[in-house]
Amino acid sequence: MAFIGSYLALVGFGPTGWGWLLLTAAAMTIGVSICGFLAGTVIGSVVTFMQLSRHMALRWLADCYTTVLRGVPDLLVIYLFYFGGSAFLGSIGGLFGYQGFIGMPAFLTGTLALGVVSAAYQAEVFRGAYKSVARGELEAASAVGMRPWHKFRRIVAPLVLRYAIPGLGNTWQLVLKESALISVTGLVELLRQSQIAAGSTRRPFEFYLSAVILYLVVTWFSSIVFRRMEARTTQGVRRAL
Amino acid sequence: MTDIGFMWDTFLTLLTGVPLTLELAVTSILAGSILALALSLLAVTGGATGRNIAGAYVFVFRGSPLLVQMFLIYYGLGQFRHGLQDLGLWWFFREPYWCAVLALTLNTAAYCSEIFRGGLRAVSSQEIEAARACGMSGVLLFRRIIVPIAIRHALPAYGNEIILMLKATALASVITIMEVTGLAGKLIADSFRAFEIFIVAGAIYLAINFIVTRMLLLVEFWLSPHMRMRLQS
């Protein structure tokens, strides 16, 4: 009981509590995850277009992209963007006569790394979804005279999105959990804030436990949102099972 | 052409981390699979209580980042040092290696138990009925009929999980374990040549993944002779 009392004082919202800081950090986690996920959607769509392209070189390039990014630890990708980005910025600074170290902004690093990694997963999700769009619907769209872009916007994109939502939900959960790795670049998201709090209070157990709980709340909530979206987009679809 | 020389040196350095990466992966996959088997059996045969317990375990370990779990075990449990010393467990939780193995094991057990559960569910009731009709029951039925069929169903997803675990061992580097990613991170921080080192480290991981996927395909081939027979006829 004493433990619970002191725990609540530690992570609560009182004068000595870390509650607000943890919640702000959780918001940062969600923010960087959303930015990374959206960046991944954009890159992933491009990769999907390449995968479905008629040119073999483009298909091969897209295959390489998804194989490499899904096969390499995400931590390495983060290191690449963080240190590689800093070196790149440094060389640009050198052009303008600045010799010092230019750190890569942590939020940008996070967004880029999460985007590039999740793009590989999202591309596979989109490709699978496109494959399950019935041929007949595409032919029907052409038959009523839709031009490619028109057909894409009215027929292909809505159908692909419908089939892709379960897979996108999984990818989102993945991005959310991966965002914890961004803490190594110093971005104060949930894990980093817990580290800071654990360091200054010497109570790591309580803070990492709180981080686990907050992550669980976010993943649980987003699974509900994605289930709702799935129900919404599959309205009027007959189910076999 | 100094780059090639640098990359070769990097390669030789990173190669020394490969045994540790493999060791982490193999230990935690083996231990995790045993735990996962117990969990999936609990979920399938344990009634409502068993299902709830297994479900809660899966929810907690799949819903939170592995890195946080690792920190909770390594740094968090360090807070209870005296209690652990009294229990005689401190030697285990003192070592970052064992903490990483424990976190990886608990994490993969959650994912694997879902895979095994799906595999067990995929055994059709007719096959079980047929086995019962032949007089098998209990452990014999389980060993001869259910497990082999379930393994066949679960193998592709299990293979994916093995690859994911290989990648996940990289997180152990954050708690000071110098496996491939740890060495790569150190090299990058020292030399700031992120791109070259990324290429070399990435190539090592891809090579390991490639070998593992080939081995899994081979296992799949061995386990499904009946499918091959059908193809040939």
Number of domains of chain A: 1
Outline of chain B:
flat
What structural category do the secondary elements of chain A indicate? mainly alpha
Oligomerization category of the chains in this entry: heterodimer
Strand coverage percent of chain A: under 5%
CATH arch. level architecture of chain B: Orthogonal Bundle
CATH architecture of chain A: Orthogonal Bundle
Largest sheet of chain B, in brief, is: none
Low-confidence stretches of chain A: none
State the order of secondary-structure elements of chain A, H for helix, E for strand: HHHHHHHHH
Helix content of chain B: over 70%
Number of helices of chain A: 9
Mean pLDDT of chain A: 89
Subcellular location (chain A): Cell inner membrane; Cell membrane
Protein name (chain A): ABC transporter permease subunit
Membrane topology (chain A): Multi-pass membrane protein
Family (chain A): Belongs to the binding-protein-dependent transport system permease family. HisMQ subfamily.
